[in-house]
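Weekly structure sync, notes
Attendees: PL (lead), two postdocs, one rotation student
Agenda item 3: pending single-chain targets
PL asked that the sequence for the first pending target be pasted directly into the notes so everyone works from the same version. It is reproduced below exactly as submitted, 196 residues in total.
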Amino acid sequence: MAETLQELREARVDERLVEICKLDTKDDTFKVEDARLAIEKAYMASEERTVIILAAKSFSPIVQNKLLKVIEEPPPKTAFILITASKATILPTIRSRLPIVVRSEVLQQEALGLDVAQLNLNDVYTFVQQHKRTDAKEMKQILQRISKEAMLSGKYNLDEKTLELFSNAFIALDVGSPPQFVLITLLLKLLAKKKR
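Predicted structure, written out during the meeting:
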């Protein structure tokens, strides 16, 4: 979690950061007084964009309910980032108001070894060769990451037929199609949909 905090500091140098962290303390639980301080900091007037980072191993339901209103309707130019060990500890009402990034998934995506946004025929060949022996279960995870990256990249003409292709790839794996064949089919069809 400390690593995530440091990455945020480095990535947001143009914004005013306010950190209320309980990571290096003996009691790493976010308390009611910490919530009050966060609310107070949120309403301090500032001309620049302010990002309030709240970090702790756990946030009690009482604390989260105290923070709910300010997270739901933050003051102008104010945003919140919560860092915690598990998204399961965050109430659904809070989770529904903040985008969630699971660091272990981000690290897995970095290890994909394929730049989907810059996909070319050579990359397809190399990637398929690397996954000659990948089983169906792992291939499903790879296909899921490829589809997500393709959608997020904005580099593809993703019509209904192409989205159906991703769905059919999962079905093909479920019925026993060779994972390498499913992967190459999906990547080649995706490459054909790349915006010129």
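Discussion points:
- The chain has a mean pLDDT of 85.
- The CA atoms of residues 20 and 37 lie 8 Å apart.
Action: rotation student to compare against the earlier draft before next sync.
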